[in-house]
């Protein structure tokens, strides 16, 4: 398999996963033209579109891509049923398309119906987990998002986190503020700044790295709890997460 990352809009990434026969699956097409250009330049054949949630910067390219390939199936959660979806999918569904086989994971939090698509080692997780961060709680609860992140954490450490935005530098700036004495976070932040200075992408990342540098996956950390004003081990981890997410929203 070959993974192609397509920049779109101001900070979105559209993902293509391609097999050896030039068939590809398109994930969260924020816009159509960048995808059409890549398809043409690489002589790729679109096999399906996968949508993680209903926000416009994840579904905006669907109508024109449908015009470009009228029989193209579109898979997504119920909340995308008015965004061009032809197949609504749920937790534990498996999507079989040629050489592709994706497992659907329901990950509420950012939106109530948010899902991800997992074909090892690739996880297309939309706006649930970012490198160094996580999505805002626009519709779901902190408990839902915490549970969704925990579900992702249970995947193999070599899982590639193919998120939909280039937010890593801002996320790591926040992580450094939360855990200023953490050398791993400090060093990773410096690496990310160098990449961004050269206009290089910081994703995909892998789950093993995220477990080390992503504060939202480390709500159990005693120093983190102290630094956000929480008495260590005094509340459920989902409540620590909620306080951390609120802190990030105001950062």
Approximate strand percentage = 15-25%
Number of strands: 14
CATH superfamily of the largest domain: Ribonuclease Z/Hydroxyacylglutathione hydrolase-like
Task: Outline the biggest β-sheet.
Answer: 6 strands, mixed
Tally of helical segments: 9
- Briefly note the structural class of the backbone: alpha/beta
The name of the CATH architecture of the largest domain is: 4-Layer Sandwich
SSE order, one letter for each helix or strand: EEEHEHHEEEEEEEEHEHHEHHH
Descriptive tags:
34% helix; Metallo-beta-lactamase, Chain A; 9 helices; alpha/beta; six-stranded mixed β-sheet; 2 domains; 14 strands; 251 residues
Folded structure, characterized:
The longest helix has 15 residues, at 183-197. The relative contact order is 0.12. The protein has two domains: 2-163, Ribonuclease Z/Hydroxyacylglutathione hydrolase-like (Metallo-beta-lactamase, Chain A), CATH 3.60.15.10; 168-250, no CATH class. It is of the alpha/beta class. Helix 5 (168-178) runs antiparallel to helix 6 (183-197). It contains nine helices and 14 strands. The chain has a six-stranded mixed sheet with strand order 1-2-3-4-5-6, covered by helices on one side. It has a six-stranded mixed sheet with strand order 7-8-9-10-13-14.
